[in-house]
């Protein structure tokens, strides 16, 4: 996969947001938190990922560049909340009441579990499958599982087995 370079000014904006949110958390929770490392290696349609034990936030460079301010306003607090939740409460549900508390009470940000960014530019190839009632798109990973005989997908509507129709981009 081709690497995407995040402009320095955007990296600085990300770090300003991280530091500002950490300061909010420190003030609210009366505890000083270390600054997490931030990398731009997240791939696919995922905007970001918090690596709890490594105290690291991985961000999707393409989605960041395409959605700069919304990404900073939504994804940075989302991922930082995962780190802080793990630090404060241990291994709890990823988007449970503790995480929602950090998002809403500490950061004053809506506790959305997923982003709403367009993923057209980062979406991988899909494969058309059909059942008795409709067409389905399977990811390359799902398609390869079918080819290897490791998985069989069933339509939730009609209960029919999904069969490969044609490939598309």
From TrEMBL:
<dbReference type="GO" id="GO:0008270">
    <property type="term" value="F:zinc ion binding"/>
</dbReference>
<feature type="binding site">
    <location>
        <position position="82"/>
    </location>
    <ligand>
        <name>Zn(2+)</name>
    </ligand>
</feature>
<dbReference type="GO" id="GO:0006950">
    <property type="term" value="P:response to stress"/>
</dbReference>
<protein>
    <recommendedName>
        <fullName>Protein SprT</fullName>
    </recommendedName>
</protein>
<dbReference type="InterPro" id="IPR023483">
    <property type="entry name" value="Uncharacterised_SprT"/>
</dbReference>
<dbReference type="Pfam" id="PF10263">
    <property type="entry name" value="SprT-like"/>
</dbReference>
<dbReference type="GO" id="GO:0005737">
    <property type="term" value="C:cytoplasm"/>
</dbReference>
<dbReference type="InterPro" id="IPR035240">
    <property type="entry name" value="SprT_Zn_ribbon"/>
</dbReference>
<keyword id="KW-0862">Zinc</keyword>
<comment type="similarity">
    <text>Belongs to the SprT family.</text>
</comment>
<dbReference type="Pfam" id="PF17283">
    <property type="entry name" value="Zn_ribbon_SprT"/>
</dbReference>
<feature type="active site">
    <location>
        <position position="79"/>
    </location>
</feature>
<keyword id="KW-0479">Metal-binding</keyword>
<feature type="binding site">
    <location>
        <position position="78"/>
    </location>
    <ligand>
        <name>Zn(2+)</name>
    </ligand>
</feature>
<feature type="domain" description="SprT-like">
    <location>
        <begin position="16"/>
        <end position="165"/>
    </location>
</feature>
<keyword id="KW-0963">Cytoplasm</keyword>
<dbReference type="InterPro" id="IPR006640">
    <property type="entry name" value="SprT-like_domain"/>
</dbReference>
């Amino acid at each position: 996969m081709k690497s995407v370079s995040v402009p320095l000014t955007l990296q600085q904006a990300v770090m300003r947001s991280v530091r500002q949110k950490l300061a909010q958390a420190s003030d609210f929770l009366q505890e000083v938190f270390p600054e997490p490392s931030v990398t731009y290696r997240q791939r696919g349609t995922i905007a970001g990922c918090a690596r709890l034990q490594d105290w690291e936030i991985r961000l999707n460079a393409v989605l960041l560049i395409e959605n700069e301010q919304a990404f900073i306003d939504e994804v940075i607090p989302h991922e930082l909340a995962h780190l802080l939740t793990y630090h404060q409460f241990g291994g709890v549900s990823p988007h449970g009441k503790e995480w929602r508390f950090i998002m809403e009470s500490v950061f004053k940000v809506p506790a959305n579990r997923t982003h709403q960014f367009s993923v057209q530019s980062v979406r991988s190839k899909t494969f058309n499958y059909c059942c008795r009632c409709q067409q389905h798109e399977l990811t390359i990973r799902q398609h390869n599982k079918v080819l290897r005989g490791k998985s069989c997908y069933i339509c939730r509507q009609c209960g029919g087995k999904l069969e490969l129709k044609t490939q598309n981009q």
